[in-house]
Design a protein that fits this description.
With 139 residues, the chain is an all-alpha fold. It has one domain. Helices cover 71% and strands 0% of the residues. Helix 1 runs antiparallel to helix 3, helix 1 packs antiparallel against helix 5 and helix 3 packs antiparallel against helix 4. The longest helix is centred in the C-terminal third of the chain and has 24 residues. The protein is globular, with a radius of gyration of 19 Å.
């Protein structure tokens, strides 16, 4: 009697869904980083007395623009046509990979080592986004 090897059913996931879910993961990691940072000694006091990196309206606007990119890409990765989708995912992915690596490199302190770990994860995921978008299949 022939022994049949068990195989689990799988199906190909649309690239747009893959990219969208990767961006959702990046966004969650950003949110976790900002939340965990509240536990760093002096952070809450700095927020209350205005002594932090986002103490001007322009710094706050710049941070808002950068941090909204992943959440916008969750949606845009699903609706934008492949040609522009690829361009957006590659360009924003490269930008955020470099930006996050810079943040991680500047966070080597005892209380911000979690930021380094998150930066490595975020950079890995945005690098995967760039690679997947670069490899976008053609018809």
């Amino acid at each position: 009697m022939a022994h049949k090897k068990l195989q689990y059913e799988d199906f190909k996931i649309n690239l747009k869904l893959v990219l969208s879910s990767l961006w959702a993961s990046v966004m969650f990691l950003y949110i976790y980083g900002d939340y965990f940072e509240l536990y760093v000694p002096g952070k809450v006091q700095g927020l209350l007395n205005g002594q932090n990196m986002l103490c001007t309206p322009y710094n706050l606007l710049l941070a808002t623009i950068v941090l909204t990119l992943p959440s916008l890409m969750i949606f845009l990765s699903l609706i934008v046509k492949p040609k522009w989708n690829r361009v957006l995912n590659i360009s924003i992915g490269v930008f955020l990979t470099l930006f996050t690596l810079l943040i991680g490199a500047s966070s080597f302190t005892e209380w911000r080592i979690f930021y380094v770990m998150l930066a490595l994860l975020e950079s890995s995921i945005t690098s995967i986004i760039v690679w997947k978008a670069w490899q976008w299949p053609k018809n």
